[in-house]
Amino acid sequence: PRTGAGVRTTISDDVVWLAHITARYVTMTGDSAILDTALPFVEGEPLAPGAHDAFYTPTVSDRKVPLYDHCAMALDLAIARTGPHGLPLMLGGDWNDGMNRVGEDGQGESVWLGWFLMTTLDAFLPIAEARGDAEHVAAWRAHRTALLAALESDGWDGGWYRRAYYDDGTPLGSTDSAECRIDSIAQSWAALSGAGDPDRARMALDAVMTHLADRDDGLLRLFTPPFDDTDREPGYIKGYPPGVRENGGQYTHAATWVVHALGRSGRGTEALAMFDLINPIGHAMTPEAVERYRVEPYVVAADVYGAGPLTGRGGWTWYTGSASWLYRAAVEGIHGITLEGGDALRVDPALPDGWDGFSATIIIDSRPHRVVVRREAGQVHISCNGKSSDGNRFDI
Fold first, then answer.
1. Regions in the chain scoring below 70 on pLDDT
2. Which of 96, 168, 213, 230 has the CA that lies 20 to 30 A from 103?
3. pTM value?
């Protein structure tokens, strides 16, 4: 992570992803030794004042520090980049790179990134505690408290969570917004974090199902309405026609987060309905559907267009990031199967209505483990390798 003139125009979520993915790996596998792996830095000059990007060949530093230190520096930098509402700075875009001008002056903030940072802090704090890093534990816990208060005050819009704030303090993703009135990712991660007000998280997902789940056109929109006539300049996202790619169509990466959030919230029937909605094979059930979709129905498309004559057409297929999240939404979100510590499986399914159960074989270190879930007389029974567990956690 670099500071300096270019800090205002960097993509603000990248540093948080480093800590998030590392924490997830350690939690799933129990491999804490990876935290001591010494890794170098990528080096490059900060962006010049007023520059939005630069093209150059970066170098690799001679200096190396443990992966844990890289993650700690990343979280420290994310926390240092806090705006006037107590939310993370948007900078040159957060997850949605196309919103690259919402916070280009260094004052705009991201509500979504606040929920994602909250989730990452909660995942990484136990790792820091286990390493005896008392200084970081104290600082991160204090910021977590302040961040949650900001999310539940300035992040809440009354019926769902706002998406962001422009540099001048105008909210984005609000009932007061003429365009991009509601954005799905702030709602998904408010639920996935498990950190906020549960009633608000439920309302936020309800709003997604009401305003963004388009069953008639067969897509799950990123936000609505798309950018078109607004006088504000959110960034290059406004250069896409309404309904194309991130500009109000289905951006499948975000749609998978909705499925995952519904499943982890116990809303299995809705999670399955949204999974079926975005499953590419569902766009090829009739000749008419194939003609409308026009891309391969056996791989995930990055986006499905959502306005005008292109509505329902897929774009940019073989999108591996969205494909892996769709798989995770099915396995973890709906079936509720997760690996813990490398030596246990947890099975906490969100069974959709109409499912009597399911069975799954999980292969870990070349050894198969058979999970069976049955619903009988309103009760759900779970076993792994023929054994039951009161806490749905099975040693493997």
1. 1-10
2. 213
3. 0.95
